[in-house]
Records
---
Amino acid sequence: MEQAARGLLEYLEQHGHTAYEVGGCVRDRLLGYPIQDIDIATSATPDQMLALFPRAIPTGIKHGTVTAFWQDHAFEVTTFRIDGSYSNHRQPDQVQFVDDITLDLARRDFTINAMAVNRRGQLIDPFGGQQDLERRLLRSVGDPQRRFSEDALRILRGIRFSARFDLEIEPQTWAAMLDCAPMLTAISRERIRDELAKMVGGVRPRRALSLLATPGLLPFDEWIALFASIPIAALPSGYSVLSERGRWVALWLQADWELERCRRLLRSWRFSNQEQRDKLHLLAAVRALPRATTDDRQAKRLLLSYGLALMLEAEQLTRWRSSQVDFAETSRIEQRWRRLDAQIEIREPRQLAIGGQALIDVFGREAGPWVGETLHTLFEQVALNGLPNQREPLLAAARKVWNEREGTN
Ligand code: ATP
Ligand code: MG
């Protein structure tokens, strides 16, 4: 990828433009971190780029961005630009293309994100980003008050970068963050959710969470209720070893939130259905665990609902909370779950050796709700009680179910 990027820069230069690698990749390289993707900034206008890269996709053409392909790698290439005025604390009303990299760097949020490198490896760093990285400081480019007023999301981005790279927030930048925090209400819930999710799921989550819990920072009652109700510093060490969903569940457990309250939070901040389910299932499983520790049938029910991986994670979370690390005990508990899971022969009613038609034929009754109900009862007996999944035993069990029903009616 690095080589392809250099090739692309060269190609742009050969056609009379200037071009740089810019932003996150420059920062990550200076830190010695692996590079995810390389963003490119250039003096070429969007029209010129589309002419130079016939296969390019105009991903954000209004803001000057196209996705260009070079040696099988995709790059976001953006025309140098300055942002017009901001009237709503989130997006510039219009952008203006320019031909000077320094102007482009000046619109970026933090000094560590406002560096560029040219094809020959020369660093363009007009705001002292490299020095700030060395001193481990997060600092706004230009007047912080103005920059956060332009786009309040930068406040959360800043906290995320501070945690991720272990940076102190420079005092004026921090003061402006607190000052401008009420403007976060102008930002869409999705964008705020994305930032919070990256912080909970990212590196040094406890640092991010304790910054977020600062009084006056988040202008949202539910988030304050969650983050400020827990002494973050008291989250057991090893918090960052948990999976992302484990971290959410750990927060809710520490704050002692009911399932319904968690569901409301996730829904109103527009987490996807999949993400809601994932987290809420884990919470439900942790809550159900005490009843299943000695009751194999209950345990198998949980395995059927949630699967082995989730139950093992629920166990892990429970032990993490009680700070128990008895390895022998842990492996005994895990072995029990694996053994019970292996005993479950089928996971869904449709895996039964007989179907609804067989019941209708054998009992000579009309189709009706009784078919599904009977199949479900048989399914539970096979899955939970070890009834053999074969035609004769199943039919015998179905007959017994029937006789019991008739008897009670
Ligand atoms: P990551 O590794 O998380 O992607 P990144 O630095 O690449 O980090 P992006 O969100 O991908 O972050 O943005 C790319 C660059 O665009 C940033 O480095 C920064 O220079 C600039 N940028 C992004 N969002 C903003 C913003 N809201 N305000 C100002 N500049 C921004
Ligand atoms: Mg990026």
---
Amino acid sequence: KIIACQLALCTLLISGSCFSQNPFITSIYTADPSAHVWADGRLYVYPSHDIDPARGCDLMDRYHVYSTDDMVTWRDEGEILNASQVAWGRKEGGFMWAPDCAYKNGTYYYYFPHPSDTKWNNSWKIGVATSKKPASDFTSAGYIKGLDSSSMIDPCVFIDTDGQAYFYYGGGSKCSGGKLKDNMIEIDGTLQKMEGLVDFHEATWVFKRNGIYYLTYADNHGRENQLRYATSNGPLGPWKYQGVFLGSTDCDTNHGSVVEYKGKWYIFYHNQQLSNTGQGNLRSICVDYVQFNEDGTIKLVEQTKT
Ligand code: FUB
């Protein structure tokens, strides 16, 4: 299915700006976008899927994936996983929250937070599904063992330039990270608290630019939620807090990923402009440019709205 963003194409022709309108997916509600560029040259976005009626993230029971090769025309790659395919998941389904995806040695690993019990908030696990393709044929491969089930949301997997994979997760006030074994499903050693973050709440994302490691995350101030970041000279910190780089999106949550594609840097995030519910749990994914200062610090993002 091709989602043709005609208005964006007009913008492209008139202004020369190679960019979508925001939100750039309007066929279903989407949130928590994790963006990656894979070897086929396309940029893939792995979001969670908000479902009407908005009741507080409980109905979220499936995931779609989107891809592009020009940042204007987006392809809905279809549904890649739903709760009924996760044997260890809670029998009522739902609560499939912010995912991430990684690629190693010919396999794509899809990480998703999901509870295993009716009492959902005490039974979070980080599930893993695998496929040989980036957006289809994923099958459940279990979950990561040995994590803290009370705050086990928002997985992020970062693969360093030497090929070592790092796993991060956390919700509430603690963000933890550590190495993944080559099988990408087991933690290698122990996870450690990410030190130096100020006002951490959730939505960890790690990337590297010019030898600097960046950890971005959301704080917790209701509709004033912002994305903050810290930098380090290593993937596990200690982190130096650097401030806010994405202001409020007028939504009860904030969640983003930063990625380079075809020589430009982008921030993917969500707002609730499309649903305008006033609650922030019918969200839609957006994208804007990220700009860096000479010293590597990030300029405040200008949010494009329709
Ligand atoms: O989408 C469900 C949850 O809302 C995510 O896991 C959090 O990061 C917040 O965006």
